Amino acid sequence: MARITRMRRLQSLQLAIPSQCAAAAARPSFAAARAISTSSPAQSKNTDWIRGKLWKGEAPGPADPYTQRMEPEAQSNLPEEALDSSRPGRDKTPAAVRESRLALPGRRTEAAAEKELQASDPTYVPAADAEGLEEVGTLSTWWEQPGHWGEESEFKGFGSAVKVVDKEVLEVHLRRAVVEALALKQAGVFSEWATKKWSEGGELDEALAAQVEVQDGKATLKGDASAIAEALTSEVEEAESSATGVTVEEAREMLKSWDSSWKNIALDNPLRFALRKRLYQLTGVLIPDAKLAAANTIKHILTLAARDPKPLKLAQVLEKRNAFGDLANVTVHERRVGPIDKEVAVGRWKVIEEELKKRDLPVTGYGDAPRNKERDWLTGKI
Amino acid sequence: MTVKALRAIADGKNGLGAFVLQCKKLDFHYCDWAGSSKGMNGFIKSLLPKFAAAHPQIEFAVSPRPGKHPVIVGHYINGRTKPICVRNLSPYEILQKVELLRDASGEKLRRTNKAVLSTKPSVRGIWSPYHGKGMAV
């Protein structure tokens, strides 16, 4: 009983669902699709007499109330892909494989048996050796074979593969991104191009030469904005851009020539996301979404994108300072001095290595010997 | 029984000839990351160059040991070593420990409750009742 009430609740729930998920609502509910009655029409004839007795005459309603429900068409809850594959005689390879541009290994086919062939073709003579047969590599070497995995199949990310670390260079790229965004705005195509990929090979110098004027947080571009916008929106697929090579010294000089007012440009959401995307494309530095929301000016974006350089290791500091420069009694190691280093220092390692190789023993590590089980016994792990 | 290599052991005879410092090598181990090595790193940067210049007869080896507390190990000419953990110590406290290692003899620490301690056997040898002419009582 409880089960049936739950069903009803579910049904009413589905009715209550607004039609926004039309696809789900279009499907008949499980309760409706299910034929609860297991009695056949022939059986219902046998029970007519008792219905007559119960109702004292003509019984209202249909003889079998359950089968009188709207009969659902042969419609299934399964997604379309599943339906496709369940149909007989269809190609069962997944759609992703069928539509892939990769050269995938072919399906396995089986040759007809010798007897069958002889029945159909009496001139058939089975080969005695493999001479003259086409050589087909194994599946394990499929991707190494020419034409199966080339440069075209390798992943090319949107972001720059080379990550810019220096803050000054990052600032130059950010300036370029700002100028480009403003140029697109002035050209009136910003909303259209905010979500598209901007051409990577735009002229860096051209973008940096443009003057940005800021008044009350709103910026305008002085200079040839249309040329910058055109360079960005051009569809010409360029080879690897070489314009990104800005050295730290160049960047420092460029930064000196700009006043810092451009960093106070107020950001709205489209500009914020456009700058983030462009910065990722140019420098490979991606600002996390959660932090981006807090950035209200260009300065904030710069703070989020720039990272302090990693602190130097002590050995590097000592080398840089030349702390023990002329002292013959001091040695500074950059890495941990391990047992092998100690043997190398006394000139014994090459002898050990030779002897180990002679005995076919692993030079480092334990080879394929199992772990020390005795230690586990002693420590109570097993 | 395992075969043991002969250990070259020099007896300390300081005072009879030229003075020989017993400490021959000092190992400095530090960690770049750990906070307990902060003082040690400062010591290596600031005080060790001067100390090493002042002691040309001692060999100094500076090497990282990531994820471990900083340790100074003294090696002595009698073949013994003396390690001291210097975690969370300041550079000047570490300097004191280094001076302690430099001045140590490398011998095991033992209580000195006799005025004279000699490693030499007696020139006359140990008295034996079975040797000599005997003594008339």
Automatic annotation (TrEMBL), chain A:
Biased composition (Basic and acidic residues): 87-118
This protein's record includes keyword Coiled coil: no
UniProt region (Disordered), positions on chain: 35-118
Keywords from the named record: Mitochondrion, Ribonucleoprotein, Ribosomal protein
Subcellular location: Mitochondrion
Signal peptide extent: none
Biased composition (Polar residues): 37-47
Main location: mitochondrion
Family per record: Belongs to the mitochondrion-specific ribosomal protein mL50 family.
Protein name: Large ribosomal subunit protein mL50
TrEMBL record, chain B:
Keyword terms, alphabetized: Mitochondrion, Ribonucleoprotein, Ribosomal protein
UniProt subcellular location: Mitochondrion
Gene Ontology cellular-component annotations: ribosome
Limits of the Ribosomal protein/NADH dehydrogenase domain: 32-105
Chief location bin: mitochondrion
SUPFAM superfamilies: Thioredoxin-like (SSF52833)
Gene3D superfamilies: Glutaredoxin (3.40.30.10)
SMART domains, per the entry: L51_S25_CI-B8
A Pfam family hit: L51_S25_CI-B8
Family: Belongs to the mitochondrion-specific ribosomal protein mL43 family.
Record-linked PANTHER family: 39S RIBOSOMAL PROTEIN L43, LARGE RIBOSOMAL SUBUNIT PROTEIN ML43
Record-given protein name: Large ribosomal subunit protein mL43
